[in-house]
Amino acid sequence: MNYLRLLSLLLALPAASLAAPATHDAAAAAAPASTEYGVSAKGFDGVLTAKRPLNIVMTNDDSWASANIRAFYYALRRAGHKVLMVGPSHNQSGKGGTFELPTSVNLTVAGRGGFVPVGAPYAGRNLTDEGLRYFNGTPAAAASWALDQEAPAFFNAKKGDTTANVDLVVSGPNEGTNLGPFLYTLSGTIGAAYFAVERSVPAIAFSGSNAMRNYDVLDLDDRTDESVRLARLSADFVTALGDATHGDRERIMPLGIGLNVNYPPVGASSNCTSLDFVHTRLTGGAFVDTIAVNATTGLPQYVNYVAKGINQCNNGDCSLAGETLVVADKGACHATASVFATDYDAPTHVIKSLLPALQRGIKKVNKNQKRDF
């Protein structure tokens, strides 16, 4: 799939209603015959059935105990996808793409919510659902553990297949948005996604506007639950994108390309009842941090700052709206989908004026350094 076709698919994604599903919708998933916990929950009635079921690895930075990732797991399975979830045992928010591995065979600190106790092994799984697994590492490391150690057997990959027969890695939905280039580098949710893209596996990072919540408070039959709504929306997004390439088994996205998806508040108390996905860009209204000193405590604190440098458009379609501005529009109900690339080289046309000075500088320093060897 080429880049332009990916953009056309994003623009063609339909609006998603948050109301109860219409009973005549032939494209919607009927309640499965199985009564397996989670998958058959009423909250996922109406989820699109995949014409092209995908092999999906999922992770996040909030830990496998997050309500968001658990609901998303069941929604994807309801859609017909085969899903392996390997989430961090502990909250790993803000770790970006850092790659931290376990330093002990057994946990010395309990995982988030105590769902992985002290003394448990650094990697493990749910006793009743083999698709639910954890790893004591950062999000990027959890994604790597999934691809290298868990997914090959789970998806019956051929020997030597470094993608482990995985069609897509999804990360999230995060507990809180991840908007703009600054959060792109800071977010563990996005860090896991761009790590997967670097490993040649298409990836999507999803982020919601809801607060931290453990999975044990979820009512998966409640369609108005925000985690359940995020799960339905995200599962439909994945299915729609996958089905757009149905029949030819091509990649869902080109090599080196991923997606960053962000949602406004979609809970029962929000004014969002019919959500549209909008194709956006990372820059535009995005912020970076500055540091100020709190007058009361005397301690440094960060302050969001909309700087020109972070919002300079050097790549892609500069006419697109910035994802930060679109999600912040309180009068609308838009989710954003921004395409990112892991090729960080600057475009030639932008650095044209810099090149002569750079080349002269390199030549001069190389000549000078030869005197020291």
TrEMBL record:
InterPro entries: SurE, SurE-like_Pase/nucleotidase, SurE-like_sf
Domain Survival protein SurE-like phosphatase/nucleotidase: residue ranges: 56-267
Signal peptide location: 1-19
Gene3D superfamilies associated with the record: Survival protein SurE-like phosphatase/nucleotidase
SUPFAM superfamilies listed in its UniProt record: SurE-like (SSF64167)
Source domain of life: Eukaryota
Pfam families in the record: SurE
Gene Ontology molecular function, alphabetical: metal ion binding; nucleotidase activity
Keywords per UniProt: Hydrolase, Metal-binding, Signal
UniProt record similarity statement: Belongs to the SurE nucleotidase family.
Name of the protein described by the UniProt record: Survival protein SurE-like phosphatase/nucleotidase domain-containing protein
